[in-house]
């Protein structure tokens, strides 16, 4: 059993052609994709991936959350496989590479092994996790969360979209509810290739991000309650303005995140005021605070300070306040052995690289709780993602898939 030689590379042209072919399914309105989970477009994308897996000689399994597992047999089928993959679902205005690169990079890895006639000791499984984005059915990383025991399957089935449609019903409707029990699979290790979704690698001219940690996160939904009143006839001193409270809390979130630098971020993303009329002082504001850090102490401190500041602001303005956590995961430390395999692969191949912390959540963050896991990142133009203008180069995609190939194959072992 040996490591792959530095001359072994994936077929970058074939990978790029596959990315472009998948991008034809669920096209967006501005050059990207709208292939939301469990839609007809998702069904079509799954069918194409399944066909490609069959052509590559893989055996497809599907679990009860609809996650697809395409297995290339190893020399010793009794050994736990090395898993690789990401997700094919997109945001409503998503790009062509977020998630998709990780799935099709895994497929290209297998195609390259087939081309070269290389047999690995352990099986390799290419995975498409269901509903990573969480844009249609919250929360994000839903299927991998059930797999890792973070969510109950029945609870996941009961998630509804904006039209009230249930996750479980839609999964059955598109025909991708499998029979396999979720979480029953044994994983020797998992590797996920992903675009950075941030500007660091491109700005520093690095080919590869070796992901050592993932940020922890709190989503806090804040409801401020004041009194609707006429904007023209209500004296300034007699207003109970929920919109003003939201503005002050928004500023406080920014200030508190800045006070916890480095490695801390925070912002208000989703925000609504009611009755949302031009000439009515908002009597109610509902908004979501997103705070993240790879340092659990900082994350905990930011939450505590924000909640205290929101209460103070509400009291000063005479507002009612309710704060409800609606999303959370602790910071992630990826497996040192898997991280080392990624770093050594980049060095062996001569790609420039740096250690990096993932600013976004990924399926690997949940799987890391049940198996050794690591991530590989490639740059994206201007750090832009969750946007139809998301872009990468063929060279960046190829470099990331090369490193993925070497890290996975070394972990799975080459049979001489």
UniProtKB/TrEMBL annotation:
Binding locations of Zn(2+) 2: 98, 133, 386
Domain Peptidase M20 dimerisation residue range list: 215-315
Stored InterPro entries: Amidase_Cbmase, Bact_exopeptidase_dim_dom, Peptidase_M20, Peptidase_M20_dimer
SUPFAM superfamilies for the chain: Bacterial exopeptidase dimerisation domain (SSF55031), Zn-dependent exopeptidases (SSF53187)
Cofactor binding description: Binds 2 Zn(2+) ions per subunit.
Record's keyword annotation contains Nucleus: no
Cofactor: Zn(2+)
Gene3D superfamilies documented for this protein: 3.30.70.360, Zn peptidases
UniProt keyword list: Hydrolase, Metal-binding, Zinc
Superkingdom classification of source: Bacteria
GO MF annotation list: hydrolase activity, acting on carbon-nitrogen (but not peptide) bonds, in linear amidines; metal ion binding
Binding site for Zn(2+) 1: 87, 98, 194
A Pfam family the protein falls into: M20_dimer
Family: Belongs to the peptidase M20 family.
Protein name: Zn-dependent hydrolase
């Amino acid at each position: 059993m040996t490591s792959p030689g530095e001359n072994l590379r994936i077929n970058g042209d074939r990978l790029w052609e596959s990315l472009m072919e998948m991008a034809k399914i669920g096209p967006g309105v501005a050059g990207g994709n709208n292939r939301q989970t469990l839609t007809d477009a998702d069904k079509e994308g799954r069918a194409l991936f399944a066909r490609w897996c069959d052509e590559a000689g893989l055996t497809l399994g599907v679990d009860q959350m609809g996650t697809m597992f395409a297995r290339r047999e190893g020399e010793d089928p009794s050994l736990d496989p090395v898993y690789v993959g990401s997700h094919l679902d997109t945001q409503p205005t998503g790009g062509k590479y977020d998630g998709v690169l990780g799935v099709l990079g895994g497929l290209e890895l297998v195609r390259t092994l087939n081309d070269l006639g290389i047999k690995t000791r352990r099986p390799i499984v290419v995975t498409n996790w269901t509903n990573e984005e969480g844009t249609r059915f919250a929360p994000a990383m839903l299927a991998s969360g059930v797999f890792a025991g973070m969510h109950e399957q029945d609870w996941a089935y009961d998630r509804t979209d904006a039209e009230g449609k249930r996750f479980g019903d839609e999964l059955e409707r598109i025909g991708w509810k499998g029979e396999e029990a979720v979480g029953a699979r044994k994983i020797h290790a998992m590797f996920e290739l992903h675009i950075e979704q941030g500007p660091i690698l491109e700005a520093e001219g690095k080919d590869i991000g070796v992901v050592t940690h993932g940020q922890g996160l709190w989503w806090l939904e804040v409801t401020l309650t004041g009194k609707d009143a006429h904007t023209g006839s209500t004296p300034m001193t007699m207003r109970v303005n929920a919109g003003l409270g939201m503005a002050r809390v928004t500023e406080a979130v920014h200030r508190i995140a800045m006070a916890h630098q480095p490695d801390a971020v925070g912002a208000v993303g989703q925000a609504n005021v009611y009755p949302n009329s031009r000439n009515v002082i908002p009597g109610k504001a509902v908004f979501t605070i997103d705070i993240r850090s790879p340092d659990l102490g900082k994350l905990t401190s930011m939450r505590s300070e924000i909640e205290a500041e929101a209460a103070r602001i509400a009291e000063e303005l005479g507002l009612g306040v309710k704060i409800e956590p609606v999303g959370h995961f602790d910071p992630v430390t990826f497996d040192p052995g898997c991280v080392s395999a990624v770093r050594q692969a980049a060095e062996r191949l001569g790609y420039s690289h740096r250690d990096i912390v993932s600013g976004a959540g990924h399926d690997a963050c949940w799987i890391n709780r049940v198996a050794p896991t690591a991530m590989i990142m490639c740059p994206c133009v201007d750090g832009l993602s969750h946007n139809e203008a998301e872009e990468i180069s063929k060279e960046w995609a190829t470099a990331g898939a090369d490193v993925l190939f070497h890290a996975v194959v070394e972990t799975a072992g080459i049979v001489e």
